[in-house]
Please model this.
Amino acid sequence: MSNNQITRERISEVERAIRPFIRWTPVVRIDASDFGLPPANLALKLELLQHSGSFKVRGGFTNLLRRKVPQAGVVAASGGNHGVAVAYAAQRLGISATIFLPSISSPAKIERIRGYGANLVVEGELYADALAASERHVAKTGAMPVHAYDQVETLLGQGTVGLELEADAPSIDTLLVSVGGGGLIGGIASWYAGRIKVVAVESDRAPTLFSALAAGHPVDAPTGGIAADSLAPKRVGDLMYPIARAHVAPDVVLVTDDDIRCAQTMLWQGLRIVAEPGGAAAFAALISGRYKPAPGERIAVLICGGNTTAVDFKR
Model:
């Protein structure tokens, strides 16, 4: 398969296949003035309420349902959320899963993977280290690799977020999306195909798409920041890059760690939403003023993950 097969028609087909296993997550409409911004209506797509705590489960189920899974089961490398999603999908479908994580992964994500019964291996410090270890495991066992972002089925599954959002918020002009490897924004941008403005938001300490667009092709980028367990692979995927060139706004918005922390705090204080750093990055672009809406611009923001221990209910 190639990226020209990541189309609205195929995303719709995938949505029907995975619908019994995923949630149609809600859209909440808020007034930006509640957060100290100029008055405007905002739509927040709360994908952190998805099974496994993030959008990643959409791509996980798409892979496990639409590819032939060998007896050796499946293997995934992840900063955290993709591993949680594949572990959850594998448990639901009765498939053996081995998940490789780097040591930077958050305790919340490690705990969820173990809770879903997957075989968990912590290897190396960064996502790239875990990915290399997973590839060695595939070569040794014959398990099916489920890539976190550079796999057609993964992009098709993540594109179903766009399908739901368009149904619930058909009048938006602009959507802000956090970017790591680019599977989410690649799938969503393929769904909208230029019919709205899709804006990429990245950590300034892990500017994968920003660096790729500057170079004219995917290149290695820094892999730091507080959202490193979800937004810091070495580079964006080869499949999503031409999609981004065609259907994502060329000006990537870079946010700081402080911007992300502020967005997390404001989501909690204003809406009682507990978002992880990567899940709050797109909202940080608005809160920080690094994305400045045009007058009357109708904006949606994707809150894409909530796997964090930021709130301790035992206290």
The chain has two domains: 3-55+152-303, 56-145. Residues 194 and 247 are 5 Å apart (CA to CA). The first strand starts at residue 27 and ends at 31. The first helix runs from residue 8 to 18.
